[in-house]
Design goal:
alpha/beta; Rossmann fold; 2 domains; two-stranded antiparallel ribbon; 8 helices; globular; disordered N terminus
């Protein structure tokens, strides 16, 4: 009897996990297919608009604009191109080269088609970690760079590795992470993958070890537009963090 008590739960749970994973994967594939079809039929080319880029979030765009007003960047690096709306928005707003990668061949191809008329955008089909390593090796590592990290995708959660690569190869940088938990405002949406949430707890060891300052939106989620997704902004402590602390759109977070 004791043996059965140990064995039966395992037999019952394992098939459930397998079926649930297949259902989750199927749902994800269907959502991706719908997004791709909508992009082809409804928005085959990028067209600027108030609700285009940064999830259609007015205050997120304000954060980006204020950062640009205080920090001079030579380039922007994005992981997770998706359909390219944020990619194009950053290129047209910042007027510096935007290098972006997408691991999904379907969405990479869609982004290339949709952004064909947007100058200064360089798209690659690549895993984000390989992409960041290659970008550093071909000369971007010595340049002031704004990073927009949005490559987290279901089973794959490369954020910690992405940050380690950035900190290891860049000295002047600002990082914005999409879909991130705002600790004191759960009205902002954020992602959870297999029980791991995009939250400070996930990155706290790297933030402390690498001496990074963390900032969250000053605007409350109720005042945000669009999808109301949360974000965090990271920068090395010192001059860059001091510059960001002067921005009305951000508030520094005391992680102690």
């Amino acid at each position: 009897m004791r043996i059965l008590k140990h064995l039966v739960p395992g037999f019952l749970q394992q098939p459930y996990r397998t079926v649930q994973k297949r259902l989750d994967d199927l749902e994800l594939s269907m959502r991706s297919l719908e997004t791709a079809v909508d992009a082809i039929v409804v928005n085959p080319k990028y067209v600027p608009g108030d609700d285009i880029g940064f999830n259609g979030q007015r205050h997120r765009k304000r954060i980006f604009g204020e950062i640009l007003s205080r920090v001079a960047f030579d380039a922007i690096v994005e992981t997770g191109t998706w359909l390219g709306d944020t990619t194009a928005y950053m290129a047209l707003t910042a007027r510096v080269p935007v290098h972006s990668c997408e691991v999904n061949p379907r969405f990479h191809a869609l982004a290339r088609r949709r952004l064909v008329d947007v100058a200064g955008v360089y798209l690659e089909l690549s895993d984000s970690r390989r992409f960041l390593q290659a970008a550093a090796q071909r000369g971007l590592g010595g340049k002031g760079t704004f990073f927009y990290l949005d490559a987290h995708w279901y089973d794959d959660l490369p954020l910690k590795e992405e940050i380690e690569i950035i900190v290891g190869h860049w000295s002047r940088f600002v990082i914005m992470i999409d879909d991130f938990c705002v600790p004191d405002d759960r009205g902002y949406g954020y992602d959870t993958y297999r029980g791991r949430s995009l939250a400070l707890e996930l990155l706290q060891p790297a933030i402390a070890r690498r001496e990074l300052a963390a900032f969250f939106p000053a605007a409350r989620s109720a005042d945000e537009t669009g999808l109301q997704r949360g974000c965090v902004v990271l920068a090395p402590k010192g001059q860059l963090a001091q510059e960001l602390s002067q921005l009305a759109s951000l508030r520094e977070w005391d992680a102690r």
